[in-house]
């Protein structure tokens, strides 16, 4: 019997994870910390890999690949992959950030991903990401102070504001952070000294703004979880929890030794902008890492082909719960609700990779785990979103199912999901990893 995932402890740890994972790089660092405490070993791509059994992970920028190989696992053992992504739509700092007008000092930002811009207005914002130094090394940066704010134009100066946002995107997204004339280098000076560096040490950065309001529980019975970056850190966190629990199950002999599978977490970056980067789902990163994990155990091309042929991927990303004020935008027969369990996402035009086989494998795992599930199908009159599922299915040729925790306000600066659903998802992923 596989170990249980305690819902209360899972939610408490998720709240802490959301607070700390303010950028993809911090999400990877937080996930790596949890894996290290669970006995996993960090590997680097440039090192020689030896052994091949036990828990390992590789972190590269905003992406993380982690896996556990049970003792005695055959070289052709199939993978059970949880796919997720670490990035969220937000406002990112431009390379020449210091700007301003009309006596205000401002910071130039670029819109990253599909951002509902009105949700970022009039919020206290901090800054996080990484600074890259002369030697190519990086330093994580996180300032949880109200340094920035994107101010909304007063209704007296824009009487039609409630008819929709009419200002151009450039003016709409430039935060203020001080009074005075724009001084080139001022922001870098502030950030580098906060990180214990000299401004001259920093030659590059990947920085973004984040909302400072803490994640928490909402509702008459605290049945909702509200936070920034639920899309898709709920899935990243659930994937880590499931992988750690699966490793413990293998170590303690709670899983049948004659049914060896290798649980994997693949958390990619840049999904929100198409996944086309060295750390995105379109990259060869996952194939390279898992291929090496087979080779280091003495496997060859035939072993790799057999492992992939028997593999299964659960692509986990946030799903749309039915909106009570816009229920006509949803499919009339499939309207997921928070706390109803993970959603199986289906689109016959392959915006999601789910087919009947993947659907059956995942829902059977939910049945065994005692986890409820729901379905999402897009309204025929509204274009469907997508995820990393189709990319993984096409590149790897593995059976893939797209799932997710249902929520409201997707891509907003503050999103909402059911408080019970993150643990539901983690339990389902654990079941897939160990018996699916």
Automatic annotation (TrEMBL):
Family stated for the protein in its record: Belongs to the peptidase M18 family.
Cofactor(s) named in the record: Zn(2+)
Gene3D superfamilies reported for this sequence: Aminopeptidase i, Domain 2, Zn peptidases
Region (Disordered) location: 80-99
Keywords: Aminopeptidase, Hydrolase, Metal-binding, Metalloprotease, Protease, Zinc
Species annotation: Kitasatospora phosalacinea
Gene Ontology cellular component list: cytoplasm
Domain of life: Bacteria
SUPFAM superfamilies: Aminopeptidase/glucanase lid domain, Zn-dependent exopeptidases
Protein name in UniProt: M18 family aminopeptidase
Molecular-function GO terms, alphabetical: aminopeptidase activity; metallopeptidase activity; zinc ion binding
Example of a GO biological process term: proteolysis
Keyword Metal-binding: yes
EC number(s) reported in the record: 3.4.11.-
Annotated coiled-coil segments of the chain: none
């Amino acid at each position: 019997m596989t170990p249980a995932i305690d819902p209360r402890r899972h939610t408490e740890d998720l709240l802490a994870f959301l607070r700390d994972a303010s950028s993809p790089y911090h999400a990877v660092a937080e996930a790596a910390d949890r894996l290290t405490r669970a006995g996993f070993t960090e590997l680097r791509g440039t090192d020689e890999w030896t052994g091949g059994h036990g828990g390992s992970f590789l972190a590269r920028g905003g992406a993380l690949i982690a896996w556990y190989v049970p003792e005695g696992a055959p070289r052709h053992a199939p993978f059970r992959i949880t796919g997720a992504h670490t990035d969220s739509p937000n406002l990112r700092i431009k390379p020449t950030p210091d700007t301003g007008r009309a006596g205000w000092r401002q910071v130039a930002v670029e819109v990253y991903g599909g951002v509902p811009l009105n949700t970022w207005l009039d919020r206290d914002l901090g800054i996080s990401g990484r600074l890259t130094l002369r030697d190519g090394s990086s330093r994580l940066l996180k300032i949880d102070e109200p340094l920035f704010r994107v101010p909304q134009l007063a209704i007296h100066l824009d009487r039609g504001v409630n008819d929709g946002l009419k200002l151009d995107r450039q003016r709409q997204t430039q935060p203020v952070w001080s009074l005075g004339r724009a001084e080139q280098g001022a922001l870098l000076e502030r950030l580098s000294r906060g990180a214990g560096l000299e401004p001259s040490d920093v030659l590059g950065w990947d920085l973004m703004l984040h909302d400072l309001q803490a994640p928490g529980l909402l509702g008459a019975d605290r049945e909702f979880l509200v936070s920034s970056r639920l899309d898709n850190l709920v899935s990243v966190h659930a994937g880590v929890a499931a992988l750690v629990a699966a490793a413990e199950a293998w170590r303690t002999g709670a899983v049948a030794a004659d049914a060896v599978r290798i649980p994997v977490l693949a958390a990619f970056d840049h999904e929100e902008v198409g996944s086309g980067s060295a750390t995105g789902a379109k990259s060869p990163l996952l194939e390279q890492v898992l291929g090496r994990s087979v080779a280091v155990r003495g496997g060859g091309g035939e072993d790799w082909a057999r492992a992939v042929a028997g593999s299964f991927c659960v692509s986990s990303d946030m799903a749309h719960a039915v909106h009570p004020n816009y229920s006509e935008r949803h499919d009339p027969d499939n309207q997921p609700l928070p706390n109803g369990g993970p959603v199986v996402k289906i689109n016959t035009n392959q915006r999601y990779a789910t087919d009947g086989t993947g659907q059956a494998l995942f829902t059977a795992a939910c049945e065994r785990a005692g986890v409820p599930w729901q379905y999402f199908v897009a309204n025929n009159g509204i274009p469907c979103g997508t995820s990393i599922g189709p990319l993984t299915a096409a590149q790897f040729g593995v059976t893939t199912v797209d799932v997710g925790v249902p929520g409201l306000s997707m891509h907003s600066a503050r999103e909402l999901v059911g408080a019970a659903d993150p643990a539901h998802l983690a339990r389902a992923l654990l079941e897939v990893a160990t018996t699916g």
